[in-house]
Known about the structure:
The chain is mostly helical. It contains 5 helices and no strands. The protein has a domain at about 5-90.
Amino acid sequence: MNHQELEHYRKLLLDIRRAIVSEMSNIKSEEEDSTLKDEDGDHSAYPYHMADQGSDSIAQEMNFFFAHRDSRFLYHIDAALDRIEDGTYGICEICQEEISKDRLDVLPHARFCITCKTKEESMKVNQSNSRGNYTAWVNDDIYESY
């Protein structure tokens, strides 16, 4: 991969990274606002009702899920930026072949070529099926889909 292509992917990854950090900051602000309101004892925005407490609890759980998902995504973006720096970006970690530019355009943090990724996912599904667990693998690799 030439220098111009690497710079294109670096810029793309940095743009995605900025968006993720911004989203994480928004989630943190929402949680802080909610916590400050609870500490003040000011529940005027929410009438005291069990259903409202349940809604607040669900919103907190969703924010936790989104923050966790975003932190995992950020990890993959940072790892891709590290691969650009060390000269391994765009090379499949399994077969050492070049990852197609079409794949990198869609998934710039991809670690595997489409062939190896397909094999890996097939193995995960087979392992999950043999254990009767059909969804556990999805969360481990949610951003490495094709």
